[in-house]
Amino acid sequence: MFNQLADRFDSVFRNLRGLGKITDDNIQHTVRDIRRSLLEADVNFKVARNFIERIKERSVGTKVIKSVKPGELFIKIIRDELIKLLGEKPVPLKISDQKPSVILLAGLQGSGKTTTAAKLAKRLVKSGKKVTLVAADIYRPAAIDQLQVLGKQIDVPVYTDNLKDPVKICTNGIKQAEAGKRDVVILDTAGRLHIDEDMMTEIKNIAAATKPVETLFVVDSMTGQDAVNSALAFSEALNITGTVLTKLDGDARGGAAISITEVIGKPIKFVGVSEKIDGLEEFDPERIIDRLLGFGDVATLVEKAQNVLDEKEAEKLEKKLKRNKFDLEDFKNQLKQLSKMGPMEQILGMMPGMNRQALKGLKVDDRQLVWTEAIINSMTPWERQNPQLINGSRRKRIALGSGRSVQQVNQLLKQFAQMKKMMKNMGKLKMPGLANMSADSLNLM
């Protein structure tokens, strides 16, 4: 997501870094490039125009601080305005004291509401809330079955009803959740076109009957400009409190998603970053923009690591490193933990200083982790503990057993030796298996 926009900003910033001073000419040249980049990325033209005007207003007559290069100051202005465009600060989900808190999900057909409902339930359960999901989509075939399957995966009850009235299904589901002393009820409603008056009336009736504390507009990030029109229509019909962007890991241009916050004046609260049930992140404008501009996202990286890394295992690994006992078995275990954090390209993109062009050339394939594990599994325990002693005949046997080439086995052993040497010179380990892996060591095959 945002790859096209990120590439264009990368080009703009490369030119800016060489500026000796900020002039009217280079301001005009830069904002022209930015305007073109935004429009090509499907950003609403009014949003793009207002954004450019704000940059020009801040840039003209800017006093340059001696310790800061003019180009870097210009970059900071653009970054700050992009963050403002997306809402500046994360807005947490509202949970009322009165139980149960009702969260209504609304949006177009195919926007990912059902999956989002389960992902949101998973987040709330993790924070200690008792959640009930209500299957109120009676129109899409298998929608109720899908929610039941997802609910079972995360151990969250799903309320269903044979009634043909979504309003009654929702109110009955809330009553049952209230009787069961549940903290939160999430209403998964049917997708509807904003031009369908009957369906829009129905969602308004659901909102009036259930009085949700949060009404979230779920939008597919790949929808394009129609996402803005839909957001406006739903915002006029409902008291939208925030939006959820799904499929942020896709290849869409992403400009429409950037436009929504400014157009309807409501914050983006969550983003779907993968198809996995835990692939829902709280939306933080500053983190997203820093990732888009190639500045890294250490905060999210650390949070992901904390969710998958075991402290006791980390301590054991630290002791092994100090004694220079880190072996291929340890390496395999670290790769397993690393794979739980998400796609490799996404993780590398969060690392500060990771050049976007270098990342493109890296061609990270998540299957490489599987292949690496296969090579290590084909080794004997002795070979994993003493990789430096693996001779030619052993390498042929390992390659045959793993289904990989001898060259790939050699490459793994060479890169492991380099990484072990690097890790030996480190101080206290902060993020085992992640912070200490260079891009080359992740590109094993």
Can you tell me about this structure?
With 445 residues, the protein is an alpha/beta fold. The chain is built from 21 helices and eight strands. The protein has three domains: 3-85, SRP54, nucleotide-binding domain (Four Helix Bundle (Hemerythrin (Met), subunit A), Up-down Bundle), CATH 1.20.120; 101-293, P-loop containing nucleotide triphosphate hydrolases (Rossmann fold); 299-442, 434 Repressor (Amino-terminal Domain) (Orthogonal Bundle). The longest helix has 19 residues, at 406-424. The chain has an eight-stranded mixed sheet with strand order 3-2-4-1-5-6-7-8, with helices on both faces. The two termini are 25 Å apart. α5 packs parallel to α6, α7 runs parallel beside α8 (197-210) and α14 packs antiparallel against α17 (367-377). The chain has helices at residues 3-16, 24-40, 45-59, 70-85, 113-126, 143-153, 166-179, 197-210, 226-237, 255-264, 285-292, 298-308, 311-322, 328-339, 344-349, 356-362, 367-377, 381-385, 392-402, 406-424, 439-442; strands spanning 101-107, 131-136, 158-159, 184-189, 214-220, 242-246, 268-272, 280-282. The model is unreliable at 426-445 (pLDDT under 50).
Would you tell me which CATH topology of the largest domain applies? Answer: Rossmann fold
Strand order of the largest sheet: 3-2-4-1-5-6-7-8
Under the CATH scheme, which architecture of the largest domain would be assigned?
3-Layer(aba) Sandwich
Fourth-level CATH superfamily of the largest domain: P-loop containing nucleotide triphosphate hydrolases
- Characterize the biggest β-sheet: 8 strands, mixed
Cα-atom radius of gyration:
25 Å
Query: How many helices?
Result: 21
Helix content: 40-55%
Number of domains: 3
**Strand content range:** 5-15%
Q: What average pLDDT do the residues reach?
A: 80
